[in-house]
Amino acid sequence: MNNERGFRYREHTADVIIEAWGPTLEAAFEEAAKAMFTLITDIEKVEPREEFSIEVKGFDLENLLYQWLEELLYYHDSQNLVFSKFQVMEISRVGEDYLLKAKVYGEKFDRKKHIPGTVVKAVTYAEMRVENRNGKWFVSAVLDI
């Protein structure tokens, strides 16, 4: 993992583990979202036609990662949206909680244009981690597929 930022998958019984990393916490969260949507469809074919502002809170960094991915999955499930660009502008501490502010870009899923990939049913807390190792941020989560 010499890359400055990125993601990879690990197999898990009936699930997929995503591992993402970046030079900042925000970059690692962006890569986790990218990993999830790369499972859902080929994001190279998703045009950033629409912009959505996302704001989520978590009681710790793991819960914030969970809330971030679940919010994106909610947009996908409820509005049939797919995203290709993720811009986490800020992760900050607000009182006892953490706050994430982001903009995401994508469009409605279109079967003529987008290839259906893996159906992600939910984000789980299994093996969820948010860690800073030697100045680089690593996050992981299990996706129920």
Structure description:
This protein is of the alpha+beta class and 145 residues long. It has a single domain (6-144), classed as Archease, Possible Chaperone, Chain: A, domain 1 (3-Layer(bab) Sandwich), CATH 3.55.10.10. Helices cover 24% and strands 49% of the residues. It has two helices and seven strands; from the N terminus they run E-E-H-E-H-E-E-E-E. The strands form two sheets. The chain has a four-stranded antiparallel beta sheet with strand order 1-2-7-6. A three-stranded antiparallel beta sheet has the order 3-5-4, with helices on one face. Helix 1 (25-40) packs parallel to helix 2 (61-79). The two termini are 25 Å apart. The model has no long low-confidence stretch (mean pLDDT 94).
Low-confidence stretches: none
Portion of residues in beta strands equals over 45%
Number of helices: 2
Using the coordinates shown, work out and report the CATH topology: Archease, Possible Chaperone, Chain: A, domain 1
For the record, give the distance between the C-alpha atoms at the N and C termini, rounded to a whole number.
25 Å
**What is the percent of helical residues?**
10-25%
Order of helices and strands: EEHEHEEEE
Structural class by secondary-structure content: alpha+beta
The coarse overall form would be globular
Q: From the 3D coordinates, which CATH architecture would you assign? A: 3-Layer(bab) Sandwich
**CATH level 4 superfamily:** Archease domain
The CATH first-level class comes to Alpha Beta
Biggest sheet descriptor: 4 strands, antiparallel
Number of strands: 7
Number of domains: 1
Strands ordered across the widest β-sheet: 1-2-7-6
The average pLDDT value, as a whole number, equals: 94
Radius of gyration: 14 Å
